[in-house]
């Protein structure tokens, strides 16, 4: 947990030459401005201006000046850059020229949700991510193909699994940047991989997820490969998910939090699944179609793993994919959980049937379906007063 003075001292002592000031657009795409290390003191004091009109979802040209303010507690050295003339990265808050927080700063939006949960409901939520991705070969021009790096399947080992060395490099790099991976393995699809994280607070978990995708893409490129996080890169093969594990600090409130998230599932879907390809994934290969929950049931929208069926508080949201913006998604999940807690909601009965195969069970339980296309999901989200109030724009 560095302070501003700690960062400035480190920069001088460790031969740091460049600082990347990172932030995110509303899609969750990382952007950055690189400044010389000698400009950091002024960046802490006054911020660094940028043109917001060029950033997706931000302001128009008439009101385009915004400022980045680096957060010293997020300092990380980029281990793939040279040791001589180091490069560091810090995430930033975004303000208007007068210092007012910018309403579309997605990290600030998430921080506000965390603050509300703690101060008004005396509850905190921890998040853990399970992120799947494909590794594809490049063509002779260095462009991505749809040829998988290997033809291995779920939890295979070398030599069938060719991705183990890259996963190992990714895990080492994560540790060097202060992120703790828990496990990694080959997934079901050819060339498909998964790396899971230790849980953390909501903001750190979102930062880690975005850093992870950056590291994976960087390490894949260094190995002459392309890392694909899209939800359904190959027809008739497993899609890639972004499974979100949520733990509630007050276990008594878990059922109400679960009910609240289920109640808002349709309104959340546009943000959990924000591309057309997302809806090619839902309903097959462990990606849910119905709004339901169940103990150990991977066909449900929310799965309560076996280790928590005795009353512990971890919930696994199974519909999201990695093209979502985790800051926005974690924000909405927190507010949905708080909505359930506020209104003392009770979830419906848990579902034991395999909903991928048993449509009759879904009909008998009168289960609603998630939106099945991007246009419908967007229409529901746009009409949601809950979403508007939660996001503030």
What can be said about this structure in brief?
The chain has helices at residues 4-13, 40-46, 106-121, 164-176, 202-222, 254-263, 265-272, 278-281, 326-342, 359-364, 374-382, 385-391, and strands spanning 16-24, 30-36, 48-51, 65-70, 76-77, 86-95, 125-138, 144-148, 181-186, 192-197, 200-201, 225-228, 242-248, 293-295, 302-304, 314-317.
The helix tally amounts to 12
Which spans of ≥5 residues are poorly predicted at pLDDT below 50? Answer: none
The tally of beta strands, per DSSP, is: 16
Q: In percent, how much strand structure appears in the residues?
A: 15-25%
Principal-axis shape: globular
Strand and helix order: HEEHEEEEHEEHEEEHEEHHHEEEHHHH
Overall mean pLDDT stands at 93
What would you report as the Rg, rounded to the nearest angstrom?
A: 21 Å
- Specify the helix fraction band: 25-40%
Largest sheet: 10 strands, mixed
Q: Separation of termini?
A: 31 Å
Sheet/helix structural class: alpha+beta
How would you characterize the overall build of this protein?
Helix 6 packs across helix 9. The chain starts with a helix and ends with a helix. A hairpin with a 5-residue loop joins strand 9 (181-186) and strand 10. By secondary structure, it is α+β, with helices and mostly antiparallel strands. The chain has twelve helices and 16 strands. The mean pLDDT is 93. The protein has helices spanning 4-13, 40-46, 106-121, 164-176, 202-222, 254-263, 265-272, 278-281, 326-342, 359-364, 374-382, 385-391, and strands at 16-24, 30-36, 48-51, 65-70, 76-77, 86-95, 125-138, 144-148, 181-186, 192-197, 200-201, 225-228, 242-248, 293-295, 302-304, 314-317. The strands form two sheets. Strands 7, 8, 9, 10, 11, 12, 13, 14, 15 and 16 form a ten-stranded mixed beta sheet that branches. Strands 1, 2, 3, 4, 5 and 6 form a six-stranded mixed beta sheet that branches.
């Amino acid at each position: 947990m560095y302070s501003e003075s700690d960062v400035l001292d480190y920069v001088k002592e460790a031969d740091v030459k460049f600082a990347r000031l990172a932030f995110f657009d509303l899609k969750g795409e990382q952007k950055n401005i690189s400044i010389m290390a000698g400009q950091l003191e002024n960046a802490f004091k006054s911020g660094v201006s940028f043109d917001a009109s060029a950033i997706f979802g931000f302001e128009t040209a008439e009101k385009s000046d915004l400022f980045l303010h680096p957060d010293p507690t997020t300092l990380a050295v980029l281990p793939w850059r040279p040791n001589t003339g180091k490069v560091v990265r810090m995430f930033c808050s975004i303000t208007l020229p007068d210092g007012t927080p910018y309403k579309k700063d997605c990290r600030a939006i998430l921080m506000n949700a965390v603050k509300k949960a703690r101060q008004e409901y005396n509850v905190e939520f921890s998040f853990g991510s399970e992120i799947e991705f494909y590794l594809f070969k490049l063509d002779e021009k260095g462009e991505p193909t749809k040829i998988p790096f290997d033809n291995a399947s779920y939890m295979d080992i070398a030599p069938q699994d060719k991705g183990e060395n890259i996963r190992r490099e990714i895990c080492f790099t994560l540790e060097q940047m202060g992120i703790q991976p828990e496990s990694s393995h080959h997934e079901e699809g050819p060339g498909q991989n998964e790396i899971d994280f230790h849980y953390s607070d909501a903001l750190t978990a979102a930062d880690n997820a975005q850093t992870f995708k950056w590291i994976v893409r960087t390490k894949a490129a260094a190995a002459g490969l392309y890392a694909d996080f899209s939800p359904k890169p190959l027809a008739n093969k497993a899609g890639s998910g972004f499974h979100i594990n949520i733990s509630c600090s007050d276990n008594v409130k878990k059922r109400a939090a679960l009910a609240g998230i289920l109640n808002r599932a349709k309104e959340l879907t546009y943000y959990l699944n924000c591309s057309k390809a997302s809806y090619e994934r839902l309903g097959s290969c462990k990606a849910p179609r119905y709004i339901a929950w169940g103990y150990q049931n991977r066909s449900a929208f929310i799965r309560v793993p076996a280790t928590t069926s005795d009353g512990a508080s971890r919930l696994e949201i199974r519909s999201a994919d990695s093209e979502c913006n985790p800051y926005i998604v974690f924000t909405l999940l927190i507010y949905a959980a708080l909505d359930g807690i506020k209104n003392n909601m009770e979830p419906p009965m848990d579902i034991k049937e395999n909903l991928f195969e048993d449509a009759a069970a879904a009909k008998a339980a009168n289960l609603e379906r998630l939106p099945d296309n991007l246009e419908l999901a967007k229409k529901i989200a746009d009409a949601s007063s809950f979403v508007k109030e939660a996001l503030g724009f």
